[in-house]
Design goal:
Elements lengths: L2 H9 L2 H4 L19 H11 L4 H13 L5 H4 L8 H27 L8 H12 L5 H18 L6 H15 L3 E2 L12 H7 L1 E2 L1 H14 L4 E4 L6 E5 L4 E5 L5 E3 L1 H9 L15 H18 L3 H15 L3
Parallel strand pairs: 1-2
Antiparallel strand pairs: 3-4, 4-5, 5-6
Helix pairs in contact: 1-3, 4-6, 6-7, 6-14, 7-13, 8-11, 13-14
């Protein structure tokens, strides 16, 4: 640690006042409003230090004060150094994650009738990316749907409709399955899927579901084991759409053949539409397994809470 850091800690006994220990196993501290001017100035100096150990402790401590600390930090952003700006943005992000995490935990135990797929996937995205503009992404999805509404003028039949939909989503907009980095957690967050135009079967199906719902098309999600599809069904037509593979159209018999050739076998419920709760549960289960495999205990525990809440029958 640099000499000036030792000086600053001693200068106002910040380590004692904030009661930091090397292990951070027991952290007690003053309320932020009780810190002296000297202590606050010392914190500002430490925010400019690039020592990773100092930054980790300091950011944790600032986050522990809660959202009120932002009233002090955010006005400092204009004109500050790049290091300080990044640290303040990190505090802002971490506080947002805490807020949205608790909100999503509460949402997970909502009654089924109160759950909406689009609302749910954006709430989930904010637990990881709290600073995103959800209204902006909703408007972007609206614009995708508006383009398709114009292109579908006068088009009849499911085959014709999805020839247009698939060309726009998977050719013009270039949404595709992320074969190269399938287990990247970003593949499961709708904002990142839209930004990068790549995802996994369930997240790309969610994009398709949200756009087709705006067009009032009879499309539902199908949680087939081992793969996730969408189903287009009218009294005269029924087929399945594989969003991970460029919107490939599958008949029911092709889906049955796939299942019979897998370890799961065929059961009627495997091709039945699933609820928003079931879709959110599957996304969260995927992320739980990814973080468990990556030995990220904190993130795995977070998704275990979500899975537990969504698994409750309401």
């Amino acid at each position: 640690m640099q000499p000036q850091v030792f000086f600053l800690f001693g200068f106002c006994e910040l380590a004692r006042q904030l009661c930091w220990s090397e292990s951070m196993s027991t952290v007690t501290h003053k309320e932020f409003s009780d810190l002296t001017t000297q202590e606050r100035q010392a914190i500002l100096k430490l925010l400019e230090d690039d020592d990773s150990a100092v930054q980790g402790l300091l950011v944790d401590q600032l986050v522990s004060y809660g959202p009120s600390v932002l009233d002090w930090l955010l006005p400092l952003l204009p004109g500050e150094s790049g290091v300080m700006r990044r640290r303040i943005e990190l505090v802002k992000t971490r506080l947002g994650q805490q807020t949205f995490d608790q909100e999503f935990v509460d949402y997970c135990v909502s009654p089924e009738a109160e759950m909406d797929l689009e609302d749910g996937v954006w709430r989930l995205a904010q637990t990881e990316y709290p600073l995103i503009c959800v209204d902006g992404y909703r408007a972007l999805l609206d614009s995708f749907a508006e383009v398709l509404r114009e292109r579908l003028e006068g088009v009849d039949g499911g085959d014709g409709i999805f020839a247009v939909v698939n060309e726009y989503l998977f050719t013009d907009l270039a949404f595709s399955g992320n074969d190269e980095n399938y287990y990247d957690p970003a593949n499961s967050y709708l904002n990142k899927v839209i930004d990068r135009r790549v995802g996994i079967p369930i997240s790309l199906s969610v994009v398709l579901l949200l756009i087709t719902s705006r067009l009032k098309l009879p499309v539902q999600g199908v949680g087939m084991p081992g793969h996730f599809l969408c189903r287009f069904q009218t009294p005269r037509e029924e087929f399945y759409i594989d969003a991970f593979n460029g919107g490939r159209i599958l008949s029911k018999s092709e889906c049955i053949s796939f299942l019979n050739g897998s370890q799961f076998g065929y059961r009627d419920e495997f091709l039945a539409p699933v609820s928003p709760r079931a879709i959110l549960l599957r996304i969260c289960q995927n992320l739980f397994h990814i973080h468990s495999e990556n030995e990220d205990a904190r993130s795995a525990a977070r998704f275990q809470r979500y899975v537990s809440g969504l698994s409750r029958m309401r």
